[in-house]
Design goal:
single chain, mainly alpha, 3 helices, flat, transmembrane helix, DUF2619 domain-containing protein, Uncharacterised_YqhV
Length: 90
């Protein structure tokens, strides 16, 4: 179905699929409990999942690009990720 030879791409996609599955499960838990207090609690847990997946997927991508990018370009990418995390107050 997918002709992807790079295992790092499979790892990145797998983490994103796992993240999506966690999001769907959280939505179902919110509906199951049916109270705003529980929904906020579940949502608080999700605030940890998003940035963690972002960092992991970006790290895998940078590992894959390590031999193709020079250090200055990789540093710019890492600073950009840092700005994203700072912007969402992680």
């Amino acid at each position: 179905m997918f002709d992807v030879q790079d295992k790092l791409v499979w790892g990145m996609a797998g983490l994103r699929m796992l993240s999506g599955a966690i999001e769907v499960m959280a939505a179902l838990l919110m509906l199951y409990y049916g109270t705003i207090e529980r929904a906020v609690t579940v949502n608080a847990f999700l605030s940890l999942v998003g940035p963690t997946v972002l960092i992991l997927v970006t790290t895998i991508g940078l590992i894959g690009l390590a031999d193709k990018l020079d250090f200055s370009k990789m540093l710019i990418v890492m600073i950009g990720v840092g700005f994203i995390l700072y912007g969402v107050r992680f």
